[in-house]
Amino acid sequence: MRVRLEDVARAAGVSPKTVSRVLNDEANVTARTREKVRAAIEAMGYRPHPSARSLASNRSFLVATLYDNPSSNYLTEILGGVLEACDQHRYSMLVRPLDVNAADFVARVDAFISHHRPEGLVLTPPITDHAALLARLHERGVRYASVSPIERAGRIGAFMDEPLAARQMVEHLLALGHRRIAHVVGHPAHGASRWRLDGYRAALHAAGMSCDPALVVQGDFSFGSGVTAARALFSLPRDRGPTAVFAANDDMAAGVIWTAGEHGLAVPRDVSVCGFDDTPIAHQIWPALTTVHQPSHDMGRIAALQLLEVLRGRGEGAMVQVPFALRVRESTAPAA
Fold it and tell me: Which of 66, 72, 150, 189 counts the most CB atoms within 10 A of its CB?
């Protein structure tokens, strides 16, 4: 027979309402009582029905993650982190792909919220900085957490010092003797693109070097845009072409490595290539990619935990800075 909430309450010697409070992780339960109820739940194998839980509390226990990002590797890491946080606190996660440039973008989010009733949202770039959407969320009183927002004042979520990380990556290339260092810029709507370009320029400036406009090529964070950008770079005269390419994410860096082979260039003998994010593709290509390790999974998890802290009435949440690290692998080497 299916174990009922009332059975758990009887075994723990408490009221059904107390069991419900423990299940919903409410604050007004003593530690001793909480321990007794959880022990009974575990011993009896009780699994509350999500619909019944929602009906009893008039809450959805849903967190929705909104995205519009061409990098599936990055997105998978973020979503995995959000899901881990939701599982930890017995929330469900909804995922909603969107086109941030659509004329009815805000209306679509509005309708999504009205239909599914998520208690809060996790916003990913570039949605995280969409001014009209943020205004509408404030108007509706919908709580949200942000991953890597441009504006952080008064926000909760997770971010990384991306300009510093990009600067250190370019300094690594400079230390290897590279002087013609190209940069493939990310999608213009993303704050990350601006920050990584800033770090690239800052490293060159600190080394007393000017930034050659011919070596800065626009991409959009996709593998295909990395290919297009690399074809432009490798078509430059040999004395003006790059000896190293810093792409603003791993997907574009993989496109650069593919295009190097297309042009008869060996990586890293003829050209060094590095990326940003340290997503799975960095390990799946050869040579393995030198990149910045951005803890994307942790950023999704931390952003969701900050949101859940608010939704569960445990605090106001915070904007949490996460650390980065350079991962030096086989795709970079001293300049020829």
Answer: 66
Residue appearing with tokens 């250190």 = 168
Give the global pTM: 0.80
Give me the DSSP letters along 280-291. THHHHSSSPPBE
Q: Which fold has domain 162-294?
A: Rossmann fold (3.40.50)
C-beta of residue 84 within 8 angstroms of C-beta of residue 301: yes
Tokens at 69, concatenated: 């990002």
Which among 250, 180, 251 is positioned nearest to 216, based on CA atoms?
Answer: 180
Where, residue-wise, is CATH 3.40.50.2300 in the chain? 62-160+296-324, 162-294
What CATH class has 5-57? mainly alpha
Classify domain 62-160+296-324 by CATH number.
Answer: 3.40.50.2300
pLDDT tens for residues 142-183?
999 999 999 999 999 999 999 999 999 999 999 999 999 999
